[in-house]
Amino acid sequence: MQRKSFGTTQCPVARSLERVGEWWSILILRDAYYGLTRFDEFQKSLGIAPSMLTRRLNSLVEAGLLERRCYSEKPPRDEYVLTGMGRDFRPVVWSLVAWGNRHFAPEGASVQLVDRATGAVADPVLVDRNTGREMTSHTFRPGPGPAADERMRRKLAQATFAAPEATP
Fold it and tell me: Could you tell me how many helices (H) and strands (E) the chain has, helices first?
């Protein structure tokens, strides 16, 4: 069975998942944020089969999230370094850390985001860069962008969107 491609859809979520939606890919990016760059480091950290790791690394390079750089010619060895696009994905992983701690860690957090200067635990939120306001379903919703086709405009116009969350 051939996998469906979302690379040309109008939805930015689907397009993003086309590049990073496979769970190994997100774990490789997580480890790249931890400073890992070499094939053997990723393999040891993740316990992933070499053939799968090769496919995922190639996919992340092809998608522009990692760059392959030669660090040894004899024997030939490459390292995998985050690109600007790869670094831009970091807040998504940080959000997954916070969400996973909140919903799937009844024993408590094993990884936390902390302030580099103070060591204080952080609680990430999504903030609108233009207004500085926290983005919640009470204050924001998806709307059509300038490149939206008529089908996307209709879909967004007809959407009821999920009910806003309760205010704490």
Answer: 7, 2
- Give the Cβ contact number of residue 158 at 10 Å: 7
The span from the CA of 106 to the CA of 103, in Å, is: 8
Q: Supply 17's token pair.
A: 């998942």
Q: Which helix (H) or strand (E) holds 76?
A: strand 76-82
Residue 39, both tokens? 């094939």
pTM as predicted: 0.83
**Burial class of residue 118 (count of CB atoms within 10 Å of its CB; 0-12, 13-18, 19+):** exposed
C-alpha angle 133-136-142 in degrees, rounded to nearest 5 = 100
Instruction: Convert the pLDDT of each residue in 30-44 to its tens digit.
Output: 999 999 999 999 999
How does pLDDT run across 8-22, given as a tens digit for each residue? 676 777 777 777 778
Tokens encoding 55: 């496919």
